[in-house]
Task: structure prediction
Amino acid sequence: MKLLGPKTQVSRPITDRVKESLFSILNKYDLPAGKIVADLFSGVGSLGLEALSRGAESVTFVEQDPKVSEVLKKNIEKAGFVKESKITRADAFKIGAPVDEKKYALVFVDPPYACSEDVGQDSPLSVLLEVLSEQVSDDGIVVVRVDRRTEMLDRYGRFKIVERRQWGTMAVTILQKMSE
Result:
């Protein structure tokens, strides 16, 4: 399905080829079918909607921009996933993935590249991963999309890198929450 896009230049849509490759990798982890998912910095909802189309139980979309949130809402309606979706308008760096009942098995973190250049121990991304450690189930997966030149740390608290892939100018790092 072709998604509606915002009338701004701030988004970095993920290509269908990269999305297909990413979800093939996630399939190794038995994701996302039947799982609770969050899509942070969701933009128009490409990753979360793909997760729903592949059988995710539900997706919480976190997007701060009100205009982009309106486009996201239209895309969710167009895709027919209103009941399985929740939109939270907030800064994902501050709230992470708000938990209703169950913790998340999969979280997509796709901040603007400018916000993810610093990925050190005290960076906004590191603080976000600390928040997510309380919101993600044991053995849960967090997928972080950054510029390919950005080298993430091997560990962020209870999250450990298990895979890193690169496509063109972007890289995807898959972190898994380790049991205590």
